[in-house]
Amino acid sequence: MLSKRIIPCLDVKDGRTVKGVNFVDLRDAGDPVELAAQYAQQGADELVFLDITATHERRKTMIEMVKSVARQLNIPFTIGGGITEIADAEALLNAGADKISINSAAVRNPKLIEELAKAFGVQFVVLAVDTKYVDGKNMVHLNGGRLITELETETWIKQAEDLGAGEILLTSMDHDGTKAGFDCGLLGKINEMINIPIIASGGAGSMDHFTEVFQKANVDAALAASVFHYGEILIPDLKQELKSNNIPVRL
After folding, report:
1. Rounded distance, CA 223 to CA 76, Å?
2. In the predicted model, is pLDDT for residue 50 greater than 90?
3. What sign for the dihedral angle of Cα 7, 12, 15, 19?
4. Helix or strand run (H / E) with residue 159
5. CB contact set of 25 (below 8 Å; sequence gap of 6+)
6. Which residue has the higher pLDDT, 216 or 176?
7. What is the rounded distance in angstroms from the CA atom of residue 66 to the CA atom of residue 243?
8. Cβ atoms of residues 130 and 88 within 8 Å
9. In the Cβ-directed half-sphere of 219, how many Cα atoms lie within 13 Å?
10. Is the Cβ–Cβ distance between 41 and 89 less than 8 Å?
11. Is residue 73 helix, strand or coil?
12. pLDDT one-digit tens code per residue, 135-158
């Protein structure tokens, strides 16, 4: 069985790592280059770096900072934020990214998924989906959760897989920052529907939550931010806990 992956997420705004609750009330969580180095040393399996206001403010991801972060790492590294065309992705690859994450741009132009997969390979393309439960349905949101779409989450993810997305980073906005646990019901449902890896995001508050999401939803990876940034959960301890629950991890 493949090892389950633990992935710290660095949400970056104006060159600093930030963290909020339900996508708002952002507070500072440190220097992303320093945090990236710490996580690599602690045994994180991958890192995700998201320039969370790039799309909203129509900026491109900060290439120079990406280079600085990449120099610190010996683990795979996904970068997202403001990627709207092949040239953006190519620049990030050249800066040191292993994968890119797209969200708003893919919803507005689904062919972008196909174009990126053809240009760089399916494994390079991570589709980030921000979902919120609205009027009895899971609905896709854009621009850092500011904009609701008419797309149902399940339908969009299936379409994205068909277009060539290699992985899904699924964030439950209802759970994000609450530390009340991942949305195992939705994650499990979507995992049954698709054949590509799912990264669970939104809601991690304890080591039990990681055990639960792997056991109940059988996701491939679990992502978190604040519990790692503020030292509430240490990655070596988390991996030992998962191993003790018979969940395969890379120690």
Report:
1. 14
2. no
3. negative
4. helix 153-163
5. none
6. 216
7. 32
8. no
9. 31
10. no
11. coil
12. 999 999 997 678 999 999 999 999
Q: HSE-up of 101 (CA within 13 Å, CB side)?
A: 27
Catalytic residue among 51, 88, 130, 220: 130
CB 32 within 8 A of CB 226: no
11, 51, 88, 98: which is the annotated catalytic residue? 11
11 an active-site residue?
yes
Instruction: Enumerate residues 6+ apart whose C-beta is below 8 A from 250.
Output: 3, 5, 43, 45, 239
Contacts of 224 by beta carbon, 8 Å cutoff, 6+ apart = 7, 8, 9, 201, 204, 210, 233
* CA gap 157, 128 in Å, rounded: 9
Distances (CA, A) of 15 to 41, 81, 128, 175: 22, 13, 21, 25
Helix (H) or strand (E) holding 133: strand 125-134
Per-residue pLDDT tens digits for 225-244: 889 988 899 999 999 999 99
Closest CA to 62 of 16, 107, 23: 16
| Element containing residue 36 per DSSP (H, E) | helix 32-42
Average pLDDT, the chain: 90
> CB-based contacts of 136: which residues, under 8 Å, 6+ apart?
none
Residue 220 among the catalytic residues: no
Say which residue, 187 or 88, is predicted with more confidence: 187
